[in-house]
Amino acid sequence: MVCVHENEYESFDGANGEDVLRHSLRNKVVVISGSSRGIGRELASLMLLRGAKVVINGIDQERLASAYKSLCDISSECMMVTGDISSWEFCVELMSAAVKRFGGIDFLVNNAAIANRGRFENVVSDVLERMTTINVLGSIYPTKAALPHLKRSRGYALFVSSVVSFHGFPFNSMYCATKSALTAFEQSFNLEYKSEGVGSGVVYFGFIENDATKTIYESDGTRIYLGARKGVRTISQRRIGMIMAKILEKRTRHRVVGATGRLLRLLSNVAPRLVDLYLYRKRAAIQTQSEGPAMRAD
Q1: Which of 9, 141, 156, 175 is catalytic?
Q2: 208, 60, 116, 255 alpha-carbon torsion, rounded to 10°
Q3: Fold (topology level) of 6-290
Q4: For the segment 171-201, what is each residue's pLDDT rounded down to a tens digit?
Q5: Annotation marks residue 175 as catalytic
Q6: Where are the domains positioned within the chain?
Q7: Fewer Cβ within 10 Å of end Cβ, the chain: N or C?
């Protein structure tokens, strides 16, 4: 990972905004799932630069260790815990390890997720099950395991979703469904626990600049490399990291990132048939992109 210096972020908020972030996040304990690469790792580096204590997580031991080594160049207040966040037993271990090392948990970022592609009838049951456990239970289990600690710290849980949760896209049915589920869960969670000082929120991202090694599920269950996004405007991981840092600092309830996402949310509410019509007419192009050639991830 390229080490990011603090002045690289000044173009987003300026000095005053940086001072606010630095003060509000110093010594806070942040647990970030799915942080061995991508926006999770970018957020982890930014949190460490701001003086937070960070727990990173991933299922790939080698990749997580590489991220951890790079993050330790920023600050020693970092620890890694390898494991699968769709396992309840592991989530309990993860939060216990964070509390044992740092004394509590102030922020939980439910970032881990997996995507797939292809026509629904061709998607094997193992992929349907795995996506549900990772994308839904992989956010619910960590939240439940962290809740006693968040109640003590009057902390905050963030759920990372997508603009496709506003309206289902063809050939992405399971990803749309699982990301939509997070909104309903967060709404219920917020109503139950805001009186006890626990905050929560959802951030909805559009197309993000992805790592070259990012993988998704093919319909038959094989893992393939996503590859560079073509024909769409992407948001850099660095900018996403800064946006997420601000969300944590402000304990934001809902944030839609990007003009396209905000337009989609608006139209999905006021003119859903128009969105249906547009996506129906674009379905052939979406299918071509979804089912095109891909490199298998070994």
Answers
A1: 175
A2: -40
A3: Rossmann fold (3.40.50)
A4: 999 999 999 999 999 999 999 999 999 999 9
A5: yes
A6: 6-290
A7: C
